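Milestone 3.1: sequence recovery, worked example.
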């Protein structure tokens, strides 16, 4: 069956994102969230957010907050939830009871010692450890310390019809009567997931393929509860450049670390989606295009390799494509972090505009563009050695004098002033512009010199030129 025919019999696609709050939202998890969100938005379906916090020892409120913060920054919204598994124990217990009543689950009172012995014997015989079914037909009606096991089929196969990976066949003989409720009364992970997915109306499960081994067990639970299966799409992992599972060794893992490095959410979204999904050779997608074009058919079967340089260049492209007002708003905190206290939004936007072609991230932009608003300029050593020397004194002095008399610092007026200095000194533009650039920015590369002069503004330009003149005069001859 193709996805379309499966989908056509369903009314509305309902996907879910169920993070475990045991840390920040990492890029792999974010990609899973994005796929579920895009598929829900593309099909005009719904996305459910569920926090899988049954592991009370490892789950923290700080992680829950960090996940919300990252989702919000990425622009991922949801239609239902957030649900918290820790608040749903009564529902899980109700379903455990249903399975006990229907004879699809049973109490087991085998001691840990017995189970350990069973495990050792299976290992010694070269087999997979598996429960031997001792209590399966005993009809035990609940006892202190008993666990509840699913009565799984002993023969036949369970086939995951995965829309990304195709059919994956599991032998039922390999799956054992696994525990669905522990002796302390707490339901187990796979059981909670199925009860949640069922009761939340989930019909499409898109998740990392590290969960593939859980799927046959979850399918058996669906079957025992007499519920229709969802569509499964297991997405290959995101790997580091050395093709091992993405970890801290490969660089930043958390979504918010990319925000703090000055990446745009649009760029990270674009990059992460492209890391496991394609649409011809296209690399650049804005959010609406992704929603329009996303489909499960085009999710790839090989692992995505996280490539930081590619993300950087995609970010640069998104910076170019973003409306200037929005980009400036996002860049502002980075400049403020570097000491910017200005309030002239128009001037700030003008500065940002000149920096777009020169920066790949907002952080880099604020570093490069810090000179615009700085109180004093620190010269790059090499730049000063090369350009702030006695030969520059005359053009700098002439220029300063002329600029002091100039009222409008627009491009045509500035060009005229430079022209006049060129004529008076007999120097070419470069011989004048480079010392001026170092005087105003501290560096040999910057946005266009006239743009720099007009944005830095008359008062600061004159002060910086005078500083440079004094610097040259103080040089040992
Ligand atoms: N809570 C799981 C995780 O964070 C997801 C489980 C699932 O998608 O079924 O990896």
């Amino acid at each position: 069956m193709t996805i379309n025919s499966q989908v056509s019999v369903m009314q509305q696609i309902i996907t879910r994102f169920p993070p475990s709050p045991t840390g920040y939202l990492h890029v792999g998890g974010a990609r899973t969230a994005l796929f579920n969100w895009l598929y829900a938005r593309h099909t005009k379906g719904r996305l459910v957010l569920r926090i899988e916090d049954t592991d009370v020892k490892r789950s923290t409120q700080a992680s829950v907050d960090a996940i919300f913060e990252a989702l919000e920054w990425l622009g991922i919204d949801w239609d239902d939830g957030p649900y918290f598994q820790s608040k749903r124990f009564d529902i899980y217990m109700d379903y455990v009871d249903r399975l006990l009543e229907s004879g699809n689950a049973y109490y087991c009172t085998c001691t840990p010692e017995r189970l350990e012995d069973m495990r050792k014997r299976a290992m010694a015989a070269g087999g997979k450890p598996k429960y031997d079914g001792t209590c399966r037909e005993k009809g035990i009606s609940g006892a202190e310390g008993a666990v509840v096991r699913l009565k799984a089929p002993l023969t036949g196969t369970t086939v995951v019809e995965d829309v990304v990976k195709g059919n994956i066949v599991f032998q039922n003989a390999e799956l054992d009567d696994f525990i669905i409720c522990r002796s302390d009364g707490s339901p187990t992970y796979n059981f909670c997931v199925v009860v949640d997915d069922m009761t939340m109306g989930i019909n499409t499960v898109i998740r990392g393929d590290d969960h593939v081994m859980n799927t046959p067990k979850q399918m058996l639970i669906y079957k025992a509860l007499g519920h229709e299966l969802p569509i499964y799409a297991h997405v290959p992992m995101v790997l580091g450049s050395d093709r091992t599972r993405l970890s801290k060794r490969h660089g930043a893992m958390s979504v918010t670390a990319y925000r703090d490095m000055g990446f745009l959410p649009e760029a990270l979204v674009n990059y992460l989606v492209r890391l496991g999904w394609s649409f011809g050779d296209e690399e650049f997608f804005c959010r609406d295009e992704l929603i329009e074009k996303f489909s499960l058919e085009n999710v790839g079967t090989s692992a995505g390799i996280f490539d930081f340089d590619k993300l950087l260049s995609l970010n640069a492209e998104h910076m170019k494509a973003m409306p200037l007002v929005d980009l400036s708003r996002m860049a502002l905190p980075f400049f403020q972090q570097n000491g910017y206290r200005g309030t002239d939004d128009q001037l700030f936007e003008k500065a940002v505009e000149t920096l777009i072609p020169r920066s790949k991230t907002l952080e880099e932009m604020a570093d490069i563009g810090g000179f615009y608003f700085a109180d004093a300029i620190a010269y790059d050593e090499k730049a000063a050695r090369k350009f702030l020397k006695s030969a520059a004194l005359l053009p700098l002095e002439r220029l300063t004098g002329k600029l002091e008399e100039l009222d409008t610092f627009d491009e045509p007026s500035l060009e005229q002033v430079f022209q006049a200095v060129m004529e008076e000194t007999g120097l070419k533009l470069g011989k004048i512009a480079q010392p001026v650039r170092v005087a105003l920015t501290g560096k040999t590369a910057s946005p266009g010199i006239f743009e720099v002069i007009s944005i830095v503004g008359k008062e600061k330009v004159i002060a910086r030129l005078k500083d440079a003149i004094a610097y040259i005069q103080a040089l040992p001859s």
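The radius of gyration is 32 Å. The first strand starts at residue 14 and ends at 17.
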